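Below is a filled-in request sheet from our internal design queue. Each sheet records the structural input a requester submitted and the sequence that came back. We keep these sheets so that new team members can see what a complete request looks like end to end.

REQUESTER: design group, bay 2
PRIORITY: normal
MODE: inverse folding
CHAIN LENGTH: 306
BACKBONE (tokenized):
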């Protein structure tokens, strides 16, 4: 039997825990946080272990709030993403204060992950359908048959991923006729304005988006050998880093897009009609809590998950 892993990127959680930390905001009737529902859905879909990517300074608090509880229902491992974790021969630029992004988060788990895995954000609710589709794809495509990396991605419909309280960042996707990703472009401040969608590109210029476009929510299904590619790519990223750009990040959408343009990866887009929600803004907590209550009334979840 092929085992699978759920990797949760949670290093962005602040060092002070409480109501102000969006990833740890209680949204369920028994104190559940968004991560609880993702883990529950992953277990139901067939995942066999969870790897949390956190920072050393929040380890004790994180374990007390969620880790110790989750390890009673599924095996748990911890990886640590730190600013100073750079390859030999490189150093952290002066005045750099934050880790290096989602690519480095996955790289932090190298050595811990031996199975096909799905990576998600800690503060996003994805729905059951995506976990099932990605799990089943990983299991049925675990053997490497080409020189390309065989990756899958949950494809959400843009209108199902918007916040009522402000703009969001999404990876806007171009999908070919075979259901494969051909390009993904990080797009910013996507929101409804005057009954139409507005959005900005990386440079802050207006761009057109369609409410029915497929977008990435950083939910990727990946084989473990891909971590070797990330390791090589991180060195190249640091080698070409502009010293004056202290906020530049090694990000999964950009990594995937580069591999696609170089014809070194194939990314199957597995579309889902589930509605995303998350606590992007403090005001989102109320609507997330209401959404969870609605799902409980529909018997999607129990009052107490674990």
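RETURNED SEQUENCE:
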């Amino acid at each position: 039997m092929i085992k699978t892993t759920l990797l949760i990127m949670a290093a962005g959680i602040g060092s002070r825990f409480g109501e102000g930390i969006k990833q740890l905001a209680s949204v369920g009737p028994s104190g559940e946080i968004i991560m609880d529902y993702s883990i529950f859905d992953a277990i139901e879909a067939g995942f066999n272990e969870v790897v949390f990517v956190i920072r050393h300074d929040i380890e004790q608090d994180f374990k007390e709030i969620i880790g110790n509880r989750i390890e009673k229902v599924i095996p748990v491992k911890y990886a640590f993403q730190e600013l100073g974790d750079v390859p030999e021969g490189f150093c952290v630029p002066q005045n750099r204060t934050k880790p290096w992004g989602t690519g480095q988060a996955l790289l932090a788990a190298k050595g811990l992950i031996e199975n096909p895995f799905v990576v998600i954000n800690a503060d996003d609710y994805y729905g059951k359908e995506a976990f099932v589709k990605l799990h089943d794809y990983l299991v049925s495509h675990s053997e490497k048959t080409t020189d390309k990396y065989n990756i899958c991605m949950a494809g959400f419909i843009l209108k199902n991923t918007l916040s009522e309280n402000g703009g969001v960042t999404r990876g806007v996707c171009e999908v070919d006729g075979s259901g494969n990703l051909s390009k993904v472009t990080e797009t910013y401040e996507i929101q409804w304005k005057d009954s139409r969608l507005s959005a900005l590109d990386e440079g802050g210029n207006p761009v057109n988006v369609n409410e029915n476009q497929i977008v990435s929510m950083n939910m990727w299904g990946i084989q473990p050998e891909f971590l070797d590619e990330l390791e090589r790519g991180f060195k190249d990223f640091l080698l070409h880093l502009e010293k004056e750009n202290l906020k530049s990040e090694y990000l999964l959408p950009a990594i995937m897009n580069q591999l696609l343009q170089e014809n070194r990866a194939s990314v199957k887009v597995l579309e889902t009609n589930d509605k995303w929600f998350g606590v992007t803004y403090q005001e989102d907590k109320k609507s997330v809590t209401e959404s969870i209550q609605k799902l409980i009334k529909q018997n999607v979840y129990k009052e107490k998950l674990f």
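SHEET NOTES:
- The first helix runs from residue 34 to 45.
- The chain has a mean pLDDT of 91.
FILED BY: M.R.
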